[in-house]
């Protein structure tokens, strides 16, 4: 019930393959447009890329935007977005859209109280990840998760069925099955239980997705991606991938996943290896989305290992703090060295910011706490990552991937 491509409006086609690796180019077709892969998906958590209008997001080359189902459920409400015609219409974004399931909030509100997952297991103790003397805002059981709203304290119940209902109301082209996102510090036993639970939830998501699709035929088809968990354990990652690859609904036996997400905690030094384990098990005819990745070295590693699309809040979040990407590494826009730099932040960048403003002006905006600083900085950082992935895609086509990786990471001060 992924359905014929002509009927669903969703399909994926593999293009050029990377020699001696799992990487490839491809084309994802959705009811709202085409995504050439590999591609970086810009994050607009609450139906907005913070400080940047959708028109500017399109102008910087973004092909798709990802929003957060949990946050939009709380505010303004998925029913409001549905009444507006879906996520794209609501935020005036004409291209493809993604929504995640709320699974990340199972971790971040349940144990982490952080906006990112640590990618270095040995650098943190359990006490640093699981906050002391703070009420946990998410509690997991077999049926689902009880959340306590960080906005007003109201309690909400998320189950696979609820998540599917919310995401269908939000109307994104690509949606994700409800999963449990764990940390690197959860025990092996807990990771085993979580992988099994995520697969049971996946069956329920497939059934509910089929019901929602049948009931909402006035809306375009939404592609459902299953999410592979398993932390840093090879056997669990492979087991999870194999399980989801062949999974169908218990009632909707023709309903399968249209693609797959790779989620959860990943040890940075093992990222490419872990993604490779998963993609060796997943069908190569379906797209794979790596959740929460945007560092240049991570992008090269993940693309070589077969990931097709990525999303991450880091480019915009770091921009709002004045941390800017450049061809030669990070730049602090607030540093004294930028005060009299009457030239672009990055002379090699083709973004709106670098073509029209100087590093000295950006420095001034941040020092003066002017809102425009966040806008210009975010445009630059998002364009930097979008453009890098465009270059990687072209390098696969041109068979210059290795050379590009060496050049880019060498200038970034990172080994490939």
**Helix segment tally:** 17
Q: What is the strand arrangement across the widest sheet?
A: 4-5-6-10-11-12-13-14
End-to-end CA span? 41 Å
- The beta-strand count equals 16
Shape: globular
Main sheet overview:
8 strands, parallel, barrel
- Strand-pairing-aware structural class: alpha/beta
Q: What are the segments in which pLDDT stays under 50 over at least 5 consecutive residues?
A: 111-119, 122-132
Residues in helix, %: 40-55%
List the quaternary state of the chains.
Answer: single chain
Mean pLDDT: 91
Rg: 21 Å
Estimate the strand proportion.
15-25%
Brief sketch in words of this structure:
By secondary structure, this protein is of the alpha/beta class. The protein has 17 helices and 16 strands.
What would your notes on this structure say?
- This protein is of the alpha/beta class and 416 residues long.
- 42% of the residues lie in helices and 16% in strands.
- The protein is built from 17 helices and 16 strands.
- It has an eight-stranded parallel β-barrel with strand order 4-5-6-10-11-12-13-14, surrounded by six helices. Strands 1-2-3 form a three-stranded antiparallel beta sheet. It has a three-stranded antiparallel beta sheet with strand order 7-8-9.
- α9 packs parallel to α10, α10 runs parallel beside α11 and α15 packs across α16.
- The two termini are 41 Å apart.
């Amino acid at each position: 019930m992924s359905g014929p491509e002509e009927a669903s409006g969703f399909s994926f086609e593999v293009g050029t393959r990377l020699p001696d690796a799992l990487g490839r180019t491809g084309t994802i077709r959705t009811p709202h447009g085409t995504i050439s892969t590999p591609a970086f998906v810009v994050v607009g958590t609450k139906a907005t890329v913070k400080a940047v209008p959708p028109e500017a997001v399109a102008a910087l080359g973004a092909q798709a935007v990802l929003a957060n189902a949990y946050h939009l459920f709380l505010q303004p409400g998925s029913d409001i977005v549905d009444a507006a015609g879906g996520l794209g219409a609501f935020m005036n974004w004409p291209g493809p859209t993604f929504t995640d399931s709320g699974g990340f909030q199972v971790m971040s509100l349940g144990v982490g109280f952080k906006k990112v997952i640590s990618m270095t297991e040995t650098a943190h103790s359990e006490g640093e990840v699981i906050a002391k003397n703070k009420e946990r805002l998410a509690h997991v059981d077999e049926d689902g998760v009880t959340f306590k709203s960080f906005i007003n304290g109201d309690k909400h119940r998320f189950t696979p069925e609820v998540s599917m209902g919310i995401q269908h109301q939000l109307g994104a082209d690509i949606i994700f099955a409800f999963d449990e996102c764990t940390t690197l510090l959860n025990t092996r036993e807990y990771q085993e239980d979580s992988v099994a639970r995520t697969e049971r939830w996946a069956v329920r998501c497939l059934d509910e997705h089929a019901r929602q699709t049948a009931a909402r035929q006035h809306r375009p088809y939404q592609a459902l991606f299953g999410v592979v968990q398993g932390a840093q354990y090879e056997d669990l990652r492979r087991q999870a991938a194999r399980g989801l690859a062949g999974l169908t609904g218990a009632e909707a036996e023709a309903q399968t996943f249209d693609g797959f997400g790779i989620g959860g905690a990943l040890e940075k030094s093992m990222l490419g290896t872990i993604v490779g384990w998963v993609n060796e098990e997943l069908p190569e005819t379906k797209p794979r989305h790596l959740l929460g990745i945007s560092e240049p070295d991570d992008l090269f590693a993940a693309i070589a290992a077969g990931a097709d699309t990525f999303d991450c809040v880091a480019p915009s979040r770091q921009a709002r703090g004045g941390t800017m990407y450049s061809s030669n590494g990070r730049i602090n826009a607030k540093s004294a060295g930028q005060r009299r730099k009457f030239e672009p932040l990055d002379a090699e960048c083709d973004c709106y910011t670098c073509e029209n403003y100087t590093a000295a002006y950006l420095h001034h905006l941040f020092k003066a706490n002017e809102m425009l600083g966040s806008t210009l900085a975010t445009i630059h950082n998002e364009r930097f990552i979008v453009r890098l992935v465009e270059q990687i895609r072209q390098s696969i086509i041109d068979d210059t991937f290795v050379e590009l990786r060496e050049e880019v990471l060498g200038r970034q001060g990172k080994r490939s």
